[in-house]
Write a structure and sequence with these properties.
With about 200 residues, the chain is mainly alpha-helical. The protein contains seven helices and two strands; from the N terminus they run E-H-H-E-H-H-H-H-H. Helix 1 packs across helix 2. The longest helix is centred in the middle third of the chain and has 32 residues. It is rod-shaped.
């Protein structure tokens, strides 16, 4: 007599006794595995057979992990993601600085202060420079032209933007990096000489 094999057991539900018998456990152990999240119930005393066989095999394959271990792994990956994000943002900022699209606040403040001071000095020097030129002029057009010429010259100082004015901090960074390398090399040499002395 031919026995037909069941092709689909995905919807097969068994009771706790059958589940325990299949896994070789007691009822208590099956319920404990449910509490630990290894097995799942469809309802009290009712276990989806196919799902629980897969879950138990995974549990055997990868081993049991405590909730603390799982929490630690989650925290590790969260920290790693934050670290990678910070590294990417730092790299983007460095690239923008290298392309003169980003400047340090200190460099901008210094450059703007210099520009404003230069402009102020230019404006304050206008009367002294202009007085000898217009003292003998009677023509209003000539006087206006002389005044405008001096004002435009002063305003030109503010209109000339040069990214190099804001590049002051890059040299400091390079020097700091070089210092780090020198310190590292000194430490290595110190370790080598200590090892030699100890021998």
């Amino acid at each position: 007599m031919a026995i037909n094999a069941k092709k689909d057991i995905s919807d097969l539900i068994v009771n706790t006794d059958v589940m325990a018998d299949l896994l070789g456990f007691t009822r208590q152990r099956v319920n404990q595995l449910d509490k630990e999240g290894v097995l799942v119930k469809a309802a009290p005393g009712r276990w989806p057979l196919a799902d629980n066989i897969k879950k138990y095999l995974e549990f055997v394959k990868y081993g049991q992990r405590t909730s603390e271990e799982e929490e630690a792994e989650i925290q590790y990956w969260e920290e790693k993601a934050l670290h990678e994000k910070a590294k990417r943002e730092t790299a983007e900022l460095k690239l923008a600085k290298m392309q003169n699209q980003l400047h340090d606040a200190r460099d901008v403040e210094l450059a703007l202060t210099n520009m404003v001071v230069t402009f102020r000095n230019k404006v304050l020097s206008i009367p002294q420079k202009l007085a000898p030129k217009i003292i003998g002029l009677d023509n209003l057009a000539e006087i206006t032209e002389a005044i405008n010429e001096e004002l435009y010259e002063a305003l030109t100082e503010l209109s000339e933007y040069d990214p190099a004015m804001f590049a002051g901090g890059e040299e400091i960074i390079e020097i700091e990096e070089e210092d780090d390398q020198v310190i590292s090399e000194d430490n290595q040499e110190g370790c080598t000489s200590t090892e030699t002395d100890s021998k």
